[in-house]
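W.,

You were right to be curious about this one. When I first looked at the sequence I had no strong expectations either way, so I just let the prediction run and decided to look at it fresh. Below is the sequence, 421 residues in total, followed by the output.
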Amino acid sequence: MRSRPKWFRVHRWLGIGLGVWFALVGLSGAILVFEDPIDAWLNPHLLTTGSHGTHRSAQSIVERAETAYPLGLVEKIRFPAADGEVYRLTMRLKPRRVGAERIEATFDPVTGAHLGARSLESLGIAPPDLLRTLYEFHRNVLLGNAGSNIVGIAGLLLLTSAITGFVLATPRTRAALKRIVRINPRTSPTRIAFDVHRSTGIVFALTLLLATLTGATLVYVNYVRDLVSVFSKVAPFPTVPWQPQNAHEPLQLDRVIADVRRRFPEHTLLEVHGSPRQLAGHLYYLKRAGDVHRLGDTIAWINPLSGEMMVERSPRTRTAGEGFMHWLFPLHSGTAFGIAGQIAMSATGIVPMLLVFTGLWVWLRKRRGERIARERQSLRDQAPRAQAGSRTQDVNAPRTQDVNAPRTQDVNAPRTQDVNA
């Protein structure tokens, strides 16, 4: 019982000090849960198409990209996974220069037409940049690597705030347990705000803890990986063995893709990471029904020189540690539980704003009530002093009159009368 005021102070000052940041990061996360459909809605000319028919091969799209950007280097290919989607290629312009700009170029999968491009370096509120700006704010508050540390520390503080709030809201009696998620609309606005604050925190306690814990873990993912490796092996991806560049030319992209699809016939190829011109390994992300990650639960690491699959990361090959690391992002974004999980995590992102508003309302009203109570108590304390001062004045003033005047009359007059009589 005595520790509850301490929990309350921690919860209160974390909310006051970091409440606005909690609300903004949560709101940006709520939007990013549905990043792809929102991005397509904001940029239909770049990310959607009305063409129907057989899709062109990835190799032909890469060739068109190289024609449009002769000095560009393709680093990532995102395949259209549904009707209306387009090829999305991440390219580095003038790659031999330090800090070369990266763009995303989109192509119609049926006609091969170049639909447009947008920079991956610029930030702003324009539709092409808005979702990426929100992502960078959510990840590092637009401050780069230093911002990532700030977000990680603040995430741990938010986790502390969520835990302290849960402790404070835990009912101590059976009667309180029945009222734990009840809101009485007939009470005062302050009481309603308190009930909303408590009930919302209890209802979303699990998802709030999950979002904050996984978010902080993803910020320090390298340290977490090293820690997990102590208990279960988390193997790094291998590198392609060095060979003279004239010994082998990279295989045609379409040939490697066809080979990967033969190896995984039940999967849909979503992305390929790694330039076809480079001799580094290529990552192939594959997804099938029931996968928890938005890019699929299967990753194939392919040698572009020989087409050999050097590593397969999938549910059938992952160690316990690798499985733990793989589940972090699906849990954070809600994709681990399908569309219902995404809706739940998106709603969880809105909850901090509601909690901050109701918490500040209750705190400010409580402070106002305490101030008024102190003023009233001060007036009550001053009233007896004023009355005591008045009594002192009344006692001193009449005594002079009572002693002198009546006594002269009482002593002289009656005595003269009695003697003469």
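Here's what jumped out at me. The chain has a mean pLDDT of 85. And, maybe more interesting for your project: The two ends are 87 Å apart (CA to CA).

Coffee later to discuss?

I.
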